[in-house]
Amino acid sequence: MSSAILFLEAIPFSGRALYRRVFPALIAACVGYAVFQAAGVEMAQTAYPAAGRADALTLVATILIAAVAAAFGLAFVQLFNRIDAGLRRFDGNPVMKAAWGGLAIGVVALVAGEHTIFSGEHAIGPVALDAATLGVSGLLVILAGKVVTTIVSLATGFRGGRIFPVMFLGGTLGAIATVLVPEIPLVI
Fold it and tell me: Would you say the C-alpha torsion 161, 115, 156, 166 has a positive or negative sign?
């Protein structure tokens, strides 16, 4: 699965071309995962606590978290469009554009912490498992920092993708929900 997502991260495309490549890659990843599971190969890297039984709270929490994440995603896209448009004046000087981007990412990393740099696939487990220790305010700082570093990276031409950072953002939103309502299982 991660190799399919990594492939999607490495090649920039959008619109219909994205969906023509996403679905076959994800289907291939799912089939590969099923084969590994059938062969008894353990693939999980982070041991999350068990979700327990599904009940009405779990269903409602899942729907609410998904709705908040969708609204957050729409706000993220709007913010990206505005920042990207504002940075277009540096298109004639890509070195200056990259320098401003690197400076912004560095400042955010100093303020919000190391979880905000790189793609996020290695940081999502520790952030989710330490959510209670970090607290809502700590998670919000990490979330805001990751939003800024992701948008700045994409808008200033840094190589990287969108999938892992967005997965990190979604996981952090979910972690915030579990801190706010401890009855919600972390895996939700």
Answer: positive
The pTM of the full predicted model, rounded to 2 decimals, is 0.69
| Cα–Cα distance measured from residue 88 to residue 2, given in angstroms and rounded to the nearest whole number | 32
> What pLDDT, in 10s, does the model give residues 115-136?
888 877 788 888 888 888 999 9
CB 161 within 8 A of CB 10: yes
CB atoms within 10 A of CB 151: 22
C-beta of residue 171 within 8 angstroms of C-beta of residue 69: no
Look-up: residue for tokens 């982070």?
46
H-only helix segments in the chain: 2-10, 15-38, 56-86, 94-112, 124-129, 131-155, 163-180
d(CA 148, CA 104): 8
**CA separation (Å) from 72 to 63, 159, 167, 176?**
14, 24, 12, 13
Scored b (16 or more CB within 10 A) or e, 157-181 reads eeebbbbbbbebbbbbbbbbbbbee
Cα–Cα distance for residue pair 142/133, rounded to 1 Å: 13
CA-to-CA dists, residue 124 to 117, 140, 168, angstroms = 12, 14, 5
Report the distance separating Cα 105 and Cα 108, nearest Å. 5
